[in-house]
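for the writeup, i need someone to sanity check this before i put it in the appendix. the sequnce is what the collaborator sent (i think, or maybe the updated version? ugh). structure was predicted straight from it, no edits. if anything looks off just tell me and ill rerun, i have time this weekend
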Amino acid sequence: MIIRDRDGTPWARVSCVLPLDAAAAWALVADARHHARWVPLTRVTLTAPGAGDRVRRPDDQAPEAGDEIAAVSGPFARQGAPGLLDRMRVERFEPPLGAVPGAAVFVKLGPVLLGTARIEVEAAGPSSSRVAWSEAIYLRGLPRAWTVWAGALLVDLMLRLVLARAAREARPRPTQRTAA
């Protein structure tokens, strides 16, 4: 769905309920390293500030504010080929705590895509949670008013696909019975 904020900027916003408690849903959708499984033709790297340089954050460490994400999309991006680079900085990374929803905010740094992405996770029951993912993007070098609406429409489609894939991944797998 396309919504507008107070200044009229259109945002793509998609939500769904996952069959996971809020902590598990947060770990699944807020960590951008998982997004490569759902965004077609994309690889994702998460780096943390280091001593004078950025260092790759280990997979067993949660992202933190200040980390940077490099998502590269293209026909052979997953094999290491170049593609469209979407650089982001984690501005906020606050997991849900009891009845308080969690929120992750990513600022898009370019070189082509600019804007903001936000992921919110809140408990929707003891073993389910509601995830809302919203983005407002525009293209560098073109008038923002021209590209923000097109961006919202395209991102809306992409978010629907991404959350559908995340929901499919979150569903419990049926146990297979074997003949005794």
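DSSP finds two helices and nine strands in the chain. The first strand starts at residue 2 and ends at 4.
thx in advance!!
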